[in-house]
TrEMBL record:
Its cofactor is Mg(2+). This is Polyprenyl synthetase family protein. One of its GO terms (biological process) is isoprenoid biosynthetic process. Keywords: Magnesium, Metal-binding, Transferase. InterPro entries: Isoprenoid_synthase_dom_sf (IPR008949), Polyprenyl_synt (IPR000092), Polyprenyl_synt_CS (IPR033749). Transmembrane segments: none annotated. One of its GO terms (molecular function) is prenyltransferase activity. Pfam families: polyprenyl_synt (PF00348). Belongs to the FPP/GGPP synthase family.
């Protein structure tokens, strides 16, 4: 599916309208808040809008989208994009990431303002604190957009169900984020036999549910989906979401920085204990595992050291295993909607989207 579609254009327009309406509120407080407006626009200007697309096609799989129904779906799809931006701002702080989408991450931008202005105190500390607040602001704004969409629904039961699903998504992704930082530190005392399962649990809750499954069922709930339709979309969304994140894990280690907007091998420097890493450790001997473990989480690794660790992971056979898992999960997802009680043209679009999100290079 092309990155620029009528839906993507509608979401882009809604983001612009929403931010334009919020800027006077910040400006009335003082000109010092201009960076909050500017950085919000910057972090909401790009991206692939996959969550918005899954939300729309979840809704569209149940009913045609026009009038108030379309407006409600666009508002909720936009809420998901703003929520995603908030999660990225916070994630970059947690991971000490310097870049996002080819530019500086939010906390580094705030740090730069501090240093350029000659203010008192520590620049990195100011950057992290300001970045946390920007993420919190975006979280609040995502809720406003969701409420705006729900207010357009005449069916209040559907509105309540949608709100419940959105709330559950927020809880799950926060829990998944905690599990992620836990695994980066607790892996050392966990049995080797459990590392793969624990890594799979992280991607299920940190990414798979909130990137694919939740947007699908949120959109479907907006359109009044019944329990059978919601279950079909859940069975499609979860394995596809896992495949989506497995692709992300491969790109985090081997992706081209010119395409991904992040340094090559960034997940190695950040010490991500992914499924890819768990499988690599299984395929390496003790000396090689020690070498891999020593490099993971070292932000000072040179390009040559990153290349050596990349080669080690390839040699373990883990990349081929992950590619096989991606194929299997995609097949499972597609099977779930083959005879599902969903509109036929939406099933076609969902199948196309499944290919797009799992074969991407960024």
């Amino acid at each position: 599916m092309a990155e620029s579609t009528p839906l993507v254009d509608l979401v882009r327009s809604r983001i612009d309208e929403f931010l334009t309406a919020r800027e006077p509120i910040l400006a009335a407080i003082g000109s010092d808040l201009v960076p909050l407006s500017e950085f919000s626009r910057q972090f909401l200007s790009g991206g692939k809008r996959f969550r918005a697309q899954f939300c729309y096609w979840g809704a569209r799989s149940i009913a045609e989208q026009e009038g108030d129904a379309l407006a409600a779906t666009v508002s909720c799809a936009t809420a998901l994009e703003v929520f995603h931006a908030a999660a990225l701002v916070h994630d970059d702080i947690i991971d000490n990431s310097d870049t996002r989408r080819g530019g500086a991450s939010a906390h580094r931008l705030f740090e730069g303002i501090h240093e350029a202005s000659g203010w008192a105190g520590n620049g990195p500390e100011y950057g992290r604190a300001a970045g946390i607040l920007l993420g919190d602001l975006l979280l609040g704004w995502s809720d406003e957009l969701l409420d705006e969409g729900l207010d357009r629904l005449a069916d209040r039961a559907s509105a309540r169900r949608t709100r419940t699903l959105f709330n559950a998504m927020r809880t799950e992704v926060t829990a998944g984020q905690y599990l992620d930082i836990l695994e980066e530190r607790a892996w050392l005392v966990q049995p080797e036999s459990e590392l793969f399962g624990r890594a799979l649990r992280v991607i299920t809750f940190k990414s798979a549910k909130y990137s694919v499954q939740a947007p699908l069922v949120i959109g479907a709930a907006l359109s009044g989906a019944d329990s059978e339709q919601l279950e079909a979309l859940r069975r499609f969304g979860l394995p596809l979401g896992i495949a989506y994140q497995l692709r992300d894990d491969v790109l985090g280690v081997f992706g081209d920085s010119e395409v991904t907007g992040k340094p090559s091998g960034d997940d190695i420097r950040e010490g991500k204990r992914t499924v890819l890493v768990a499988l690599a450790r299984q395929g390496l001997d003790q000396a090689e595992r020690t070498q891999l473990d020593a490099g993971l989480g070292d932000p000072g690794l040179s390009d040559a050291q990153i290349a050596a660790l990349q080669q080690l992971i390839r040699r373990s056979g883990a990349v081929d295993q992950v590619e096989g898992m991606i194929s299997d999960y995609v097949a499972e997802a597609l099977s779930a909607i083959t005879d599902a009680p969903l509109l036929a043209d939406a099933r076609t679009e969902l199948r196309d989207l499944a290919v797009t999100v799992t074969r991407r290079t960024a």
